[in-house]
Amino acid sequence: MAQISNHMATAELQALDADHHMHPFSTQAGFKTKGARVITRASGTRLWDSEGNEILDAMAGLWCVNIGYGRDELAEVAYRQMKELPYYNTFFQTTHVPVIALSARLAELAPGDLNHVFYAGSGSEANDTNIRMVRFYWAQKGKPDKNIIISRKNGYHGSTLGAMSLGGMSGMHAQGGVVQNVHHIDQPNWWAEGGDMTPEEFGLERAQQLEKAILELGEDRVAAFIAEPIQGAGGVIVPPETYWPEIKRICDKYEILLIADEVICGFGRTGQWFGSQTVGIQPHIMTIAKGLSSGYAPIGGSIVCDEVAEVVGSGEFNHGYTYAGHPVSAAVALENLRILDEEKIIETAREQIAPYLKQQFEALVDHPMVGEAKIVGHMGSIALTPNKETRAKFAAEAGTVGYICRERCFANNLIMRHVGDRMIISPPLVFTRDDVDLLISRARKSLDEAYAKVK
Ligand code: PLP
Fold first, then answer.
1. How much is the mean pLDDT over the chain?
2. Is the pLDDT at 188 greater than 70, yes or no?
3. For atom 13 of ligand 1, which residue has the closest CA?
4. Nearest to 296, CA basis, from 37, 54, 58, 64
5. How high is the ipTM of this complex?
């Protein structure tokens, strides 16, 4: 077989891809008629494809490339670590310097007494750890029946069987079943589900569903509540301001653990190091991944508070992954945290770019097809609607208009994603004002083109 490289013709690469590579969250057969876009390189906030197009990445890959593409420091750290100690595990009373250094740094950064890290290779694996860890925690405390985890419809916690069961994506549940003892309450999505209530009333009502669920299931059965501070993959749903304070009240009142899934919100995306700080909560466990290494190396984990770590640590927790705390990923993550911190990337993003991004992005609401535009820090969404007053959905099958809009963005060299009829962004934190201007002009053009097709 000829050497496969960036220099091959796009059609040839696409044909091989369609024949041999099974894509996540895709209809595989479709690649036979329309080949996948082949991304060949990236720098800063831009990607290039095999046709030479320069593309603005307003999704930071999959919400993860927080420091932007092409940072040599991370490549150099990975190279050095691979030469020195490419792999060793932390099972059986062993450890290594990269994992020690990263854990100590995460303990410094994480709020309150979140001082202990259990590693995984991804966010999904970390959430699987969380399911097992909170159940083990309660079993250690003599309450093995306190094993139900409450989560939310349209939340996303990953794709492994456990993480997918925590998530509330019905299309995923329908394929292959779910694990037991996970209970879903409704999401705080005022635009889609708020009816006649004000956002404030609705936020309270949705939070109080947690209390109702705890009372119905029994406080002695509920182990934990898990949620993303701001739902990401569900469509960047910014909850009404009343939501999190009420959830906090309920969590404080009942003896259940609070798990904040920070896989997207963590490491600066919402303007603080962690989304929990932005929404004002202090969880017992935080799930981390993505921005931890800015996506340069696969790594995830659970940051655990003192009390939970002590209880879990008092017995043998029979759980662990071969690549947990992988030395190369840990070294890359540590270097990424150094750059985020020393270059003040989070502060700069929050103070110098986010206000401008918010002003420009939320102004998209003047487009005839945009009903709601919301952004917190560097994650935002717009809701597409045929009627802003009634917040109606398009008559076409759910997501059709969003899909058309995403295709137009793609054609206009802008990566935005759609979730149903919401269009979402999650740009690298190194987005400049010029990037914002380009994003908005390409988004407006794409919206106009999509509108011309559907109106
Ligand atoms: N949790 C949240 C909030 C996510 O958004 C994701 C991925 O998008 C995950 C967990 C799963 O992470 P991974 O894809 O690294 O397994």
1. 97
2. yes
3. 123
4. 64
5. 0.99
pLDDT at position 101, please?
98
| pLDDT at residue 3, rounded to an integer | 84
Using the mean position of ligand 1's atoms as its centre, give its distance from the Cα of residue 104 in Å.
23
Q: 125 and 299 in contact (C-beta within 8 Å)?
A: no
Q: pLDDT band for 397, please (50, 70, 90 cuts).
A: confident
What pLDDT is stored for residue 1 in this prediction?
A: 67
* Closest-lying ligand 1 atom to the alpha carbon of residue 265: 3
Burial label for 393, CB within 10 Å (0-12, 13-18, 19+), is: middle
For CA atoms 446, 33, 42, 293, give the dihedral sign: positive
3-state SS, residue 159: coil
Give residues (CB < 6 A) around ligand 1. 122-124, 127, 156-158, 228, 232-233, 261, 263-264, 289, 300
> Among 59, 128, 264, 269, which residue has the most ligand 1 atoms within 8 Å of its CB, making it the best to mutate?
264
pLDDT in tens, 42-99: 999 999 999 999 999 999 999 999 999 999 999 999 999 999 999 999 999 999 999 9
How far, in Å, from the CA of 263 to the mean position of ligand 1? 6
Cα angle 368, 198, 357; round to 5: 50
Identify which of 151, 156, 329 to mutate to test ligand 1's pocket (most ligand atoms within 8 A of the CB).
156
* H or E, element range at 185: strand 182-185
> Residue 287 belongs to what H/E stretch?
strand 285-288
Cα of 13 vs centre of ligand 1, distance in Å, is: 28
State which of 59, 279, 290, 303 you would mutate to test the pocket of ligand 1, scoring each by most atoms of that ligand within 8 A of its C-beta: 290
Closest CA relative to residue 187, chosen from 238, 140, 221, 224 = 238
Q: What is the pLDDT of residue 395?
A: 85
Task: Identify the three-state secondary structure at position 142.
Answer: coil
**Tokens at residue 249, please?**
């009240």
Give the span between the Cα atoms of 81 and 79, in whole angstroms.
5
